[in-house]
Amino acid sequence: MAKDKKSVFYCQNCGYESSRWLGQCPSCHEWNTFAEEVISTKPGIPASASQGKRRSTAEPKALSEISAESGVRISTGIGELDRVLGGGIVQGSLILIGGDPGIGKSTLLLQVCRNLSLQNRSVLYVSGEESLQQIKMRAVRVGDFGDSLKLLCETDLDDVASVIEKTRPEFVVIDSIQTMYNESVTSSPGSVSQVRESTGVLLRVAKTLQIPIFIVGHMTKDGNVAGPRVLEHMVDTVLYFEGDRTQAYRILRAAKNRFGSTNEIGVFEMRTEGLAEVENPSEFMLEGRPKDASGSVVACSMEGTRPIMIEIQALVCRTNFGFPRRTTNGADYNKVNLLMAVLEKRAHINLSQDDAYVNITGGVRMSEPAVDLGILMAIASSKKDLPVSADTVVFGEVGLSGEIRSVAMAEQRVKEAQKLGFSRVILPKANMKALSRSHEDFRVQLLPVENVREAINLMGREQH
């Protein structure tokens, strides 16, 4: 190998760098993920030396000299997407959208391009995976487009950057970053080096020209964006599509957002003409809920400023093996084990010889502490075979001593339950003081509980 080149081994799963090949990655612990990449280097000579010394034109500015108008957001025309972004698109932002194949990433961005083009805003859609005819076929399904949308099928990043600098569009979509090829990097497209350097070029273009750029990223089997971990640090916003692509509903969640909250989610329904907004997610989350079935509890979770009603299902049955199974879907596995331990210790419900299965319907993942009481009551309901009333909503955080701790924004949760027709709300006793100060005349029955025993006793009284 020439002296100005050397080999480096990168983990294709997480981007860990090593000077030699390794069977298992020390960072992500995956096997057989290292690939060799040849990089160019000239020892003792800085990378910029061959380009000549360039005089810098950058000058610092005082904070008072900077106008805040540059941060004005532009609506995408899709309310759920604007909510996740924090109110709209910020000029010069770099937005990464990840998700499983076929879940709707390209379709959503094509709908955004349609709305922006109908606003007479110039949009450049760069595709490295589909031909112009394939994009046209999807566009016919989505609807009518304005003439300000331009399509470009190109994988050479230098050519893409030249087109952007020449045409100066107001918005750019790159589909996808794994197909882009930078000639200054000797490795193949989709490799760690290519993804990192290509994102760096797009970042420079976005910040220099103040053009917002959307990037589509493929996902690994672990549910992370393929490529180096530094990719998520370089971009301004990281959005993930959740849900099963075989189901009609999709959930868009922000994992990182420099311009807004990361707690907001957007709910969409996949239709023939594209992704449609679901304005009231609680209704579709509770669709098809069984009546008077044990192990089914409706809980309320706050996603940003929006309360969402979700159904928590639990199935507890005698184990056929010496070691009981614990399975969760949509809930944290360790959290479920912790709540079952609280039930055994504080409520004297023996679960040591039972299999336990916990599921949050709708394909959504919930990690807010306020759903603790709902999970605990669903497990207890299935174990005792006592159904929880269908008109009851539960929320509250459970402590290790069995106490029910207060949660934030209790008033919004109660109002949402009232709006959806529920008549009873089981909530922490500590939240009653704040609710009484709000002077709201709630039309639902508030049932405050102080510990898990009181909550389980309320469940038993419903049968009398």
Beta strand count? 23
Query: Given this structure, which CATH class of the largest domain is correct?
Result: Alpha Beta
> Would you identify the CATH H-level superfamily of the largest domain?
P-loop containing nucleotide triphosphate hydrolases
Structural class: alpha/beta
Radius of gyration: 26 Å
How does this model look, in words?
This protein has 464 residues and is α/β, with parallel strands linked by helices. The relative contact order is 0.09. The chain has helices at 79-85, 105-118, 132-142, 157-167, 192-209, 230-234, 281-285, 333-346, 372-384, 410-419, 432-437, 452-461, and strands spanning 5-11, 17-18, 34-40, 73-74, 89-90, 94-98, 123-127, 149-153, 171-175, 213-217, 237-242, 249-257, 265-271, 274-277, 296-303, 306-318, 326-329, 354-360, 392-394, 397-398, 404-405, 424-428, 445-449. It folds into three domains: 5-44, Rubrerythrin, domain 2, CATH 2.20.28; 71-279, P-loop containing nucleotide triphosphate hydrolases (Rossmann fold); 287-461, Ribosomal Protein S5, domain 2. Strand 11 (237-242) and strand 12 form a beta hairpin.
